[in-house]
Specification:
The chain is α/β, with parallel strands linked by helices. Helix content is 43%, strand content 15%. The chain is built from 17 helices and nine strands.
Amino acid sequence: MADPSPEPFRLDVPQETLDDLRARLERTRWPDEITGSEWKYGSNLTYVRRLVEHWRADFDWRAQEAELNAFDQYRVPLGGVDLHFIHQPGVGPDPTPLLLVHGWPGSVWEFHDLIPRLTDPGRFGGDPADAFTVVAPSLPGYTLSYRPGQPRFDVGQMGDLFAQLMTDVLGYERFAAQGGDWGGYVVTCLAAGHAEKLLGIHLNFLPVRQDLPLGDAPSEEDLAYLEELRFWQAEETGYHAIQGTKPQTIAYALTDSPAGLAGWIVEKFQTWTDHRGDFEGWVTMDSLLTNITLYWVTGAINSTFWPYYAIRHGPWPLPDGRIEVPMAYASFPRETRHPPRRFAEPFFDVRRWTELPRGGHFAALEVPDLLAEDVAAFFRPLRQRR
């Protein structure tokens, strides 16, 4: 059987979907809030009310839709999913194919400022020889790669699907890959299962087990990481437990209430970004709402929870042995956790380990310039392996 052919895709949300969204926003029923709590107990009421009012009255979805449609987008039937992806040609003498993988609660929108820096570095003062041709899929089950009732995918299955996309569908025998959040897991699974296809992998989230032994004489860096883990497990894993145990239950509220969906998602951006007290100056409401609207208009939130359930109820998805693919890690100061390099080296062929001066969990959205520079620097000596 011949491999399926991609079909060009253009995003055009029906106006009745947008009208229904606006009507639901007008009817929002608000909770109370403990006075002076700000973001301590979750999404701040004052901020979410302003975000929802902006969404209802001022947010221009059609302008954001046009910005997404400026990219070359496609859909292809793979694995029971109509897989959506951006396939943006590089501008340079010999662009290297690069798979770019997002996570939760993100989307390909996270890459809207990063992709041009990767595909056309000369436009930003870089070297055209560093150009990539970028393939950025929506994860199966996420936003534009979702339809009701389709199969659920764990991170290993996503890696296999993307290997098929890159080689069988698009014809790239060797390619580079980059990912953060679940994208870091997917790219690592891809390297473990399809090493012969990878030039290297670049991660801005390091998927290492949280139960690795510290040894008899832990360093200050080890102890700092242990404290990060303690705080993370005590204060930041509520969403993970819900999405990983009873995802169907929370899905009713988030699929029915746009204000509820916004409150669920925006708290992660506020908590995990490097805004340093100026959240709105760091991530604009329009950018947040573009991402949230993609979740709303596709109705995809329930299926995006599946990787949490799968990782909680199945085996650890990554191999115990070493992955023999060149690897780089970009550590951003407001990432949720900072594993020491020595925790990575038994499992990865670490070629580059960079401590960046600013940025957080959503680095592609927050600091696309720094991420693009680090990706280009890592893959520069590896391009000849094609």
